[in-house]
Amino acid sequence: MMKNFIFSALLIFILGNLCGFGLPWWAIAPIAAVVVWLFPQTGLSAFLAGFLGGMLLWGLHAFLLNSANEGVFSAKIGQIFQGLSSNNLLLTTALMGGVLAGLGALTGQWANDLRANTEPKDYYTRRKKGRYK
């Protein structure tokens, strides 16, 4: 179980990094959903794996962009948000990425749970199983 957690978090981080070049900002949610659907976990573990992967991805990306321009851009954006410091802005960005990926991963886990626990829905299959005569 712990192996799936660490592997999922790292795979979300790596795939999010690779796909981040051509996909929109919200693409981390379906990536996390697919990763957790392929490597099932409990609900909390899935959310935390997605949260960790998304937080690392968005936090590291924001930190690298902030370092590239010596914090000038984040200081200006922080002024727009009522004097938010650049470090708090980076932390907020990382948390938002973590929540987005965590909710995507939780959606993937719920989809996996639905797939595993489904009953046949059509009349013909139920009739063959003896539910309708």
Question: Could you give a short description of this structure?
Answer:
The chain has 133 residues and is an all-alpha fold. Helix content is 76%, strand content 0%.
Intertermini distance: 43 Å
Helical run tally: 6
Shape by Cα distribution: elongated
Helix-strand category: mainly alpha
Q: How many independent structural domains?
A: 1
CA gyration radius, whole angstroms: 20 Å
Strand proportion, as a percent range, falls in under 5%
What does the largest sheet look like? none
Helix content: over 70%
Show unreliable segments: none
Task: Estimate the mean pLDDT confidence.
Answer: 86
Topology order in helix (H) and strand (E) letters: HHHHHH
Strand count? 0
Structure description:
There is one protein chain. The protein is mainly alpha-helical. It has one domain. The chain contains six helices and no strands. The protein has helices spanning 2-19, 28-38, 43-68, 72-80, 86-116, 123-128. Helix 2 (28-38) runs antiparallel to helix 3 (43-68). The chain starts with a helix and ends in a 5-residue tail after the last helix.
